[in-house]
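Design a sequence for this backbone.
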């Protein structure tokens, strides 16, 4: 976690000098480019007035308390969101436990007791679709009216669009469920990634197709079943490796459990990795059942060639954009 952000896990941890703050409030799941635009604006307002750029987020997601049947699978953990906030200059974040008692606060109580009171906000900056308070009765207009009463001004940040689509966490989840990782990555402003420990496999790949690293991940969201061009990063500090990753059930081998299997395109040096982050860059094809391991291996080799061609194109593009050496 970057040292430049201070994290408070509840109101009881807040110091008396938390404010004055310029504050944003939200779930910020995935910290996509729309969220980052809000973070940057918070920082700009805070610096202009000498306030502290701050954020309030929640754990668990409020829907898991008030409407668990509609609660989304999450793109990120609260700690990850805080790290991405820090990249944009947010200096302090509150991860507030969302409880049934908290969900009963009226919009007025939330604005008076939490926002103006405990968080000492002088400015509150939120997205255009922000809702708050019991039964989500509060909106941006009521927030502005309450701010006038309790001593903070409100600024509403417009949504960001990519290819005509308004960026949102729910839209990114939908794109990933369809396997459209390239467009999801544009909305995130970075590659969608999952992390976890390397799990021992059954050894089938190394004997009958190609060797793979098998990821055991606790990620709530995975891309649709299929084969992807990926970049694999060992969390022990090794450089990133180009790779091809299959998300699926290994139907050729009658697999029963969903797996994330990665074939690295370069020889691995040093000790075997124990923890990985896999970044999804481009979807190659659907997962399918082949008549034999030999047919599957032939398809995997074609996938590998397509992935290598992708990385060559990226390298040429980066080379053209890189400033000349002095």
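Sequence:
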């Amino acid at each position: 976690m970057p040292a430049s952000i201070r994290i408070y896990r509840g109101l009881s941890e807040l110091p008396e000098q938390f404010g004055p703050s310029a504050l944003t409030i939200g779930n910020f799941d995935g910290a996509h480019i729309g969220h980052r635009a809000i973070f940057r604006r918070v920082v700009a307002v805070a610096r202009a007035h000498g306030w502290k750029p701050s954020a309030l987020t929640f754990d668990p997601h409020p829907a898991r308390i008030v409407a668990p049947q509609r609660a989304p699978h999450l793109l990120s953990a609260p700690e990850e969101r805080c790290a991405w906030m820090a990249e944009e200059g947010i200096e302090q974040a509150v991860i507030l436990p969302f409880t049934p008692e908290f969900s009963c606060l009226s919009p007025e109580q939330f604005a008076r007791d939490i926002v103006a009171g405990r968080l000492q906000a002088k400015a509150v900056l939120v997205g255009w679709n922000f809702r708050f308070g019991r039964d989500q009765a509060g909106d941006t207009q009521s927030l502005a009216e309450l701010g006038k009463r309790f001593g903070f001004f409100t600024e509403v940040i417009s949504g960001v669009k990519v290819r005509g689509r308004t960026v949102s966490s729910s839209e990114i989840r939908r794109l990933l469920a369809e396997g459209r990782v390239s467009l999801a990555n544009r909305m995130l402003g970075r590659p969608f990634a999952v992390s976890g420990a390397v799990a021992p496999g059954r050894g089938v790949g190394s004997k009958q197709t190609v060797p793979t690293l098998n990821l055991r991940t606790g990620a709530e969201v995975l891309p649709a079943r299929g084969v992807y061009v990926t970049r694999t990063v060992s969390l022990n500090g090794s450089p990133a490796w180009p790779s091809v990753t299959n998300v699926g059930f290994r139907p050729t081998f009658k697999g029963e459990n969903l797996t994330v299997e990665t074939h690295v395109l370069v020889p691995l040096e040093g000790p075997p990795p124990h923890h990985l982050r896999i970044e999804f860059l481009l979807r190659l094809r659907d997962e399918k059942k082949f008549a034999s391991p030999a047919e599957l291996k032939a398809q995997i080799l074609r996938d590998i060639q397509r992935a290598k061609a992708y990385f060559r194109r990226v390298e040429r593009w980066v080379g053209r954009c890189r400033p000349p050496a002095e």
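DSSP finds ten helices and 14 strands in the chain.
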